TrEMBL record, chains A, B:
It comes from Rhodoplanes elegans. Pathway: Amino-acid biosynthesis; L-leucine biosynthesis; L-leucine from 3-methyl-2-oxobutanoate: step 3/4. Mg(2+) binds at residues 225, 249, 253. Its EC number is 1.1.1.85. Belongs to the isocitrate and isopropylmalate dehydrogenases family. LeuB type 1 subfamily. This is 3-isopropylmalate dehydrogenase. HAMAP family: LeuB_type1. InterPro entries: IsoCit/isopropylmalate_DH_CS, IsoPropMal-DH-like_dom, Isopropylmalate_DH. It catalyses: (2R,3S)-3-isopropylmalate + NAD(+) = 4-methyl-2-oxopentanoate + CO2 + NADH. Its cofactor is Mn(2+); Mg(2+).
Amino acid sequence: ATYKLLLLPGDGIGIEVMAEVKRLIAWMNQNGLGTFETEEGLVGGAAYDDAGVAITDATMALAMAADAVIFGAVGGPKWASVPYEARPEAGLLRLRKDLGLYANLRPAICYPALAEASSLKREVVDGLDIMIVRELTGGVYFGEPKTIVDLGNGQKRAIDTQVYDTFEIERIGRVAFELARKRRNKVASMEKRNVMKSGVLWNEVMTALHAREFPDVALEHVLADAGGMQLVRWPKQFDVIVTDNLFGDMLSDVAAMLTGSLGMLPSASLGDVDPATGTRKSMYEPVHGSAPDIQGKGIANPIAMLASFAMALRYSFGLGKEADMVEQAIAATLDKGLRTADITSEGCKVVGTREMGEAVIAE
Amino acid sequence: ATYKLLLLPGDGIGIEVMAEVKRLIAWMNQNGLGTFETEEGLVGGAAYDDAGVAITDATMALAMAADAVIFGAVGGPKWASVPYEARPEAGLLRLRKDLGLYANLRPAICYPALAEASSLKREVVDGLDIMIVRELTGGVYFGEPKTIVDLGNGQKRAIDTQVYDTFEIERIGRVAFELARKRRNKVASMEKRNVMKSGVLWNEVMTALHAREFPDVALEHVLADAGGMQLVRWPKQFDVIVTDNLFGDMLSDVAAMLTGSLGMLPSASLGDVDPATGTRKSMYEPVHGSAPDIQGKGIANPIAMLASFAMALRYSFGLGKEADMVEQAIAATLDKGLRTADITSEGCKVVGTREMGEAVIAE
Ligand SMILES: CC(C)[C@H](C(=O)O)[C@@H](O)C(=O)O
Ligand SMILES: CC(C)[C@H](C(=O)O)[C@@H](O)C(=O)O
């Protein structure tokens, strides 16, 4: 089979880490490990500079037609004052929404070799393996009204709207419960039902779904603020965490930072499986951002991006063996003591983006 | 002067830790350190059991008339299925809203004696001293519509609304900048301007306020998710953090947990100063909750509650010297090696709520 990939490097270090994925794809093509056709497009600030929007309709059409989108990162101070509708993040949000990528999978894994890089005590994070399942196409990110109105007298009023329908909560819940069955069989659902009506509905739908379809999985309800606390106190208590778009944004960033491996963490954003073709829309991106402070220096860690491509192999193309190969190559490279600057520790060899990418491919 | 206090112990360990404040008040009255008149009321689950609401109008009237409200904690599994409008938290939210307590001050301090109790490495948290200034009467907590509608077909739609007006952002910003001037002169303003219109307005108002009234204070803007990450990575980079109601809820809980001193942390919720009387409405409560899992065991840590009363002495009654006394007594008690179960470590003596309260008073 031939797979069509759309590569969207975006801005900042997105471009640098995507270069390593291109190298990996070329190597796989050459060595008969897959037939990948790639196209490349602009998104974020790069698209704005080129066309005045954060993503063009033409690029969106490519994304719709691709078997998977591989995404780098967007944003940077350069675009701090572009109009709200054209800000770099709007490109990312449009991709998520228009491709229907409602399920964002964010593993928070602490690589034993990197436990020292965490600000948490080793015993708190060593061996940590959490999967955060974040709802990605609903909530306050997309609800209307979302506006600023001028009230006169120098006063403005800003409004954002969090909206969730039953079906949106059910389908993300299903993703979480199904993942839990393949892991440690535990789901923690996080919301603020004590303050938000969307939390009340979220809680109610998860409870009913659990009773109806997943009684074999352990479910606990945790208030999102308490969940943030517990993540810091003793993260290993969690297996799968399922939560809404905004809480997922906060909680997954906190969880990622706990691991000391931010530059290592991949993510997958998935739509529904099309019953006709058996395929699903999908996008893969590192959890880290465009890191304008280190852009152009060639020191960014490409591992999160490479691991995101491994997730694509597994979730979009059923190439589980090949995905394992990539992940094992990453682990082996780390075991040899190679590190980018963000994860270095005593006795390790610091390398740049390209050297790290090449080392992983060599493995 | 005679000060009128309304004590609202609430539920769970709220009742147990409030008992120690009562002991402290009695001792201060006896020793001529103040003249405090106290009344007591029900709030939360306790009020619901008694009157079917989370706080009665009569108790609200007492709160309006008091010079300060001292609040314990509310909630617990016992009230998991009471109607939404009567849930325990509704009492707390009504107090905040009706008293106009828009400024929530949450210090996150790591007591050196307790640095070991943190899940973070000692060097990351030792000596940590952050002040989180959380907006408390606006945002998604109170915006309308806030509702669940039945769409038919087994589908419901939940809606919450985040609303912020210019003046609400300005007044909380002023509190933050003024506090920073008495501290390390740095404010970090946190929002999600890349996704939320309220974040855009928040950012704009803080920037303008800073330029107009506080150019001498250093201001940085941090995206709330990145802020959560930075809190975990290197919290000492922050001095004052100012943020909205919901982000403040999450971020202050994470910050509190970092310190390893959750059972130690007080908070103050303040309204505007009345130009006629020079006084302001105020409420003081521990950052921790009602902890149903340990209620009734007499092991809860009363220090957060006692420290909250110290904040009342300082912010509501101008009794700075007396506040210092209470805080020094807490530090001295810890120095002697007395600990409640939540903060114990090797070589310390574990005591219960009452023994800890008495030890602080003895100091
Ligand atoms: C860039 C931004 C719009 C995005 C989000 O808020 O979802 C990012 O923080 C993320 O978590 O993917
Ligand atoms: C009890 C709850 C309503 C409250 C809040 O969400 O504000 C609590 O979490 C807090 O932080 O004071």
